[in-house]
Amino acid sequence: MRKCGAALLLAAAMVLAGCSSGKEASEPVTQAPTTSAADTTKAAGEAAQPEETKAPEQEAEDPSANIQADEEKEADVIIVGAGGAGLAAAIAAADEGAGSVIIVEKLGKTGGSLNFTSGSMSGAETIIQELDGIEDTKESYIEDIMSNGAGLGNKELIQIFADEDVDAIQWLWDHGLSEYTFSEQNGKKSVFAPEHQLYSIQRTYKPKAMDPANYKSAVHEILDKEIAGYDNIQIDYYTEVTELVGNDKGQVLTAVGYNSDSKKTVAYRAKKGIIMATGGYSGNPKMMGEYAEYGENYLVGGADSADGKGIRIMQEAGAAVDQEKLTYIPTFPMGLEYSEGKGAIGDVYMWKAGGIYVNQEGQRFINETLDEVVPRETALEEQTGAVQYNIFTDKIVEDLKAANAAFMWEYYYEPETGIGHKLIQSADTLEELAQIIGVPGDALVKTVEEYNAAVDAGGTDEFGRDLSGAVTAYSVAVNKIEGDRYYAVPIKALVVMTLGGVTVNNDMQVVDEAGNAIPGLYAAGEVVGGIWGRFVSGGTGVMGPVVFGRITGRNVVNMDLAEGQPVKAASFVLEESLFEKEESKAESYDMSGLKDGSYEATVDGQNGEMTVQVVVEDGKIKEVNVVSNHETENIAAPALEKIPAAMVEANSPDVDSVTGATLTSGRIREAVKQCLDQAK
Ligand SMILES: Cc1cc2nc3c(=O)[nH]c(=O)nc-3n(C[C@H](O)[C@H](O)[C@H](O)COP(=O)(O)OP(=O)(O)OC[C@H]3O[C@@H](n4cnc5c(N)ncnc54)[C@H](O)[C@@H]3O)c2cc1C
After folding, report:
1. For residue 239, what are the CA distances in angstroms to 39, 47, 264, 345?
2. Cβ(539) to ligand 1 under 6 A?
3. Pocket lining: 545 vs ligand 1, CB cutoff 6 Å
4. CB 246 within 8 A of CB 317
5. Does 101 lie in the same domain as 240?
6. Whether the CB of 204 sits within 6 Å of ligand 1
7. Considering the chain, what is the average pLDDT of its residues?
8. What would the pLDDT profile of 621-643 be if each residue is shown by its tens digit?
9. How far is Cα 321 from Cα 503, in angstroms, rounded to an integer?
10. pLDDT at residue 447 above 50?
């Protein structure tokens, strides 16, 4: 079902055009989102005008009435963030009877972190398990999640999650998931996911996106498709909410945003409530450095947009945050550093066929084939620089391929074609290899000699690694490290999600430091802290936001709007400096003396080279064209669209990066500068 375009922007136009206000005509409807001009906004200055007939004290008591904004918009429900949580919340709120929902999103697209993941999901007692003939219980799921989180999760919220998760997966199934192809194990869609601490039963699901050019995960695809069918859900893109403002009844019903396209501020007014669904802080290295003991060494695996600022915005409106839980920053022991400080899940997995990991001191420190992820994860975090080098040989690569377990190798590292093959170091001798990767040569040689001796001896080595040759999910062959050529791939601790955030009650209302619900303010998704405990359980990163988004969407519509204490900041508020971006020290490009002509330059890109053409006319940039690129399409699109035009307009390569696509922005900038260098 297509929306009426006019209704997206103006409710008035929507009514005139006769569009239906809801998904189904029979669904309860109050009204669609409304927009009004700046003159309806009460400016603080105006309120201060002396006027005999007014009661100035009364206006001064309602801070939300005195907001200065260029535009006003009103809806039953305002949702901040169009990730999995925000999208699911919007659908649930609309289905529950909200007449109008506005999602405010700072990027130019939906999905948030879902743009970066193929989106493994999990659930117990689901339709998928039923069709697979797998018996499972929610109790077992809850126990596993509690145990995976080192017993530090919130059992009541996990119980609520497990109950609703069944319905959420059923809803996804009924809305298209049943049509997807899944990665299967033994002919079943319900699988074990060895990249995480294993569940006691197969309850992870890995559907593959149908439109891989635009989507990485099925959940994102389904949510987007569904949202498009609702006329009463509007998404305001490129609008970052910077502040929540309470009213005279202590209710938080106003969010102030800034639209970077129109350069206007917008006051979003909610009649029922505001749902903050702004995600975690896996894109903020400063927060990792501040809250994880070894965090300054971690690779950032989350989106730039996952900056944690939403947590601070809520704290300024009184939200409680447990500082201990902010330290719950799980890592993956499999980060490939593709750009300084930034990483993707890219382990080479050579240890499955006999390779070893050594640290910066050239020593092994863990059983590489351990079937538990958490000990491997924490062991890596503690190593110097949180880096481990996977050491292997050609024979090990051959054996991994022979066992059909070389998917990551082929994707990332295969010479010539693998997108990360330039990151492999190799040498004829171990001493040379050690020198290249900067570990002590004698230590590496000794480590390998000891390991090779252990392989000869068979049995179990000093780290508990089984060298008997038994084939498991973590070991397909045993080999010594010996041959004509030696290889090393650096793998670092990688953060793709965080587990701290604001505190909520069981209704997903944000609570203040005294434990009282802040009227009107709800939160869902990764921005909520303390649900899962210290470590991640597979598939809850995707399903948690969807499940709690649904619950929150329903609650915001159904729960009475209470009155509370005047809104004031919490005693603990995250430091503002944690969100300041490092200023670029680069001097602006000297545009003098450019000769007219067409110039081309090629730079390294995400998955291959990027070629850019610049046309100079009358000494100015006339055109910037990205001729070819291998960027991740759905992430890079806003930069590919906006940066060339911005450069032409500014007649300079020094334009701001597009949020969420900073790496692509930087590559275009670099290529354009190289073109301009040629024009000198
Ligand atoms: C590489 C990677 C792989 C992953 N793999 C898996 C997996 O396989 N399985 C799994 O379960 N989990 C996985 N996760 C985690 C999971 O994807 C996330 O936890 C989940 O998608 C978070 O959803 P969310 O809606 O809470 O937040 P997000 O997806 O972060 O969405 C938040 C949205 O809010 C917007 N926003 C933020 N602040 C503002 C503001 N002030 N104003 C307006 N908009 C704002 C953001 O732009 C974003 O669109 C992975 C994560 C990553 C990064």
Report:
1. 20, 27, 9, 30
2. yes
3. yes
4. yes
5. yes
6. no
7. 89
8. 999 999 998 887 777 888 898 89
9. 6
10. yes
Q: Is 238 in the pocket of ligand 1 (CB under 6 A)?
A: no
CA distances (Å), origin 99, targets 26, 86, 95, 264, 277: 12, 17, 9, 26, 20
Mean pLDDT lowest for which of 110-114, 228-232, 649-653? 649-653
Location of structure tokens 């806003």: 638
Task: Give kind and range of the element (H or E) at residue 276.
Answer: strand 264-276
Secondary structure (3-state) at 93: helix
Q: Which residue has the tokens 């922007």?
A: 9
Closest CA to 165 of 427, 534, 622, 531: 531
* Mutate which of 278, 304, 508 for ligand 1 pocket (most atoms within 8 A of beta carbon): 278
- One-letter amino acid for residue 642 of the chain: K
- Print the domain residue range for 387: 335-494
Question: Are the beta carbons of 169 and 123 closer than 8 angstroms?
Answer: yes
Total tally of structural domains belonging to the chain: 3
Buried b (16+ CB within 10 A) or exposed e, 617-626: eeeebeebeb
Averaged pLDDT, 569-582: 93
- Is 311 found in the same domain as 391? no
CA of 678 to the centre of ligand 1 (A): 41
Question: Do 321 and 230 reside in the same domain of the chain?
Answer: yes
**Tokens 């890109």 appear where?**
605
Partners of 236 in beta bridges: 104
**CA atoms in the 13 A half-sphere facing the CB of 567:** 31
| Residue at a domain's end among 512, 544, 575 | 575
Using pLDDT thresholds of 50, 70 and 90, give the confidence band for residue 8.
very low
Q: Is residue 312 within 6 Å of ligand 1 at its C-beta? A: no
